Amino acid sequence: MFARTKRLTLRPGWPEEAETLAGAIAHEAVATKLAHVPWPYTVADAEAFLALPHRPNDARFLILSHEGAYPVLVGGIGLSALAPGVAEFGYWLTPSAWGRGYATEAGRAVVQTARHSLPLRQLHARHHLDNPSSRRVLDKLGFREVRREASFSLARGRHVDSAVLTLAVDEGVEAEVDRMAMAA
Fold first, then answer.
1. Cα distance between residue 141 and residue 150, in whole Å
2. Suppose 97 and one of 30, 74, 167, 175 were both cysteines; which one would form an S-S bond, judging by CB atoms 3.0 to 4.6 Å apart?
3. What is the CATH number of the domain that holds 154?
4. The pTM is what?
5. Domain N-acetyltransferase: where (predicted)?
């Protein structure tokens, strides 16, 4: 599965990209914002991630910016099936890509993929409370907080205060149409 936006290409990762992937994600400031990423992050971790089997309702993408002369790996985003009709939404960006709107742009493409290409009814996401930038992205995508709880961070080696958010896959369709009409 692939997706293309104005500035980004979302596509599966390839085994030969392990070094590039490790270089992009292996920043303590990235790893400590995520739940399932170890710190330090090694090429072996990237190889293991790229070798994970794909389940039918999973959609894992590398995010490549194509604003320059050549595409550059700037992050990862995806959906992991939790239960029938339900998937967890997650993403990360390398620090040099922060603040450019890539997470929101890629997130919109993945939510649209969930709406139109996957048999999903609901998306779940979580963010550590000390990561307000992630919360802003999730708010822009239409996620709504349902509770707060501690969640384990592999990189930190401990539980971290987090917010859990959900998005009904068909939710936001009218809001998107309304926003487009207002912009016209």
1. 23
2. 74
3. 3.40.630.30
4. 0.90
5. 8-170
